[in-house]
Input
Amino acid sequence: MKRALLVVIASAMVFASCQVKEKNDSLNLFKEEAQGKVVAEFDGLKITDKYLEAYLGQLNPYIKKQYQDPEKKKELVSRMLETEILARKAVKEGVASDPVLLSKIKNMVARHYYSTKLKIEVEDKIKVSEDEMKKYYEDNKKEKFTQPEKIKASHILIKASKDRTEEDAEKLAQSVYREALAAKTPEAFAALAKKYSEDEGTKLRGGTLSFFERTEDGGKMVKEFSDAAFALKNVGDISAPVKTSFGWHIIRLDAVKPKIESEFKDVKARIESTMKADLRKNAFETEIENIKKEYGFKLNDANVNSLDLKIPEDVQEQKGPQMMQRPQMQLKNPEVARKMKKIVEEKNRANDAAPKNPGIKTEK
Output
């Protein structure tokens, strides 16, 4: 904390040497406080307790509590004043002429201005009426404030193949369907899925699928599968074999989450926050553009494009950001490394050979 405090304070102090033509834009970061008790003196300056309020006001109350003891308080103030002295010496030696340092200071000043004065001016202009919020609610009710009905289901997939005709696949599906009707419990249906299903992605867990919405409501199931599943009325109901592009499905309804439509009063605060955030973003952008106009800002596109960003060659040659590249795990034992490589290769082959999740739409 102490080191961070020194860095922040020193960065701010160095800006003292920046002078511009207009008198009001000149900065004197070592301006003496006429009022208050003199705490210390250096280089002809008298530092008062009022002067130190700017430092103390930034400290967390719990941090301050640690410095109540006279010796600790002396240590805290000494560090603050050491920062003042170092900053004054740095300014006198012309350190503020360093363009890199100046760019950092200007960024800090801009962020402070953005988050204080500019923010207050923008916030004062942001108003959202009750009628505007109600209109937003009505315009976005279905998309943002309604959770469509969802169901959870299990299924058994029977597919045609080079060894099984489409007709034979349908006959087998009908036979499995009759067995499924006799299966009165979820566990019995799961056992049939493990025995017959050719959906490798779900058969080991008894054909269970996650909750999904109707296809029309944004669900990811193919329409034939979705329509058949949502046609089931009661938990435990089982559909007759349903044909999709993946094969024949026998579907069991496992659970239902009814449609939930939030009322305006329940989402009013969220709507207000969302609308104000949008207005705030637009207002800030407008204020920045106005300031640009005030100062006659112009941008020379040709000269911008010709700027040399001075990117090192080793970075230029990389295909993606260095931080996104994961280091390879090194295995010292050759036998372990060989087995791991074999497992990965077998898993990749299995993934390539496995069918897509039956019933799930895939992007072409």
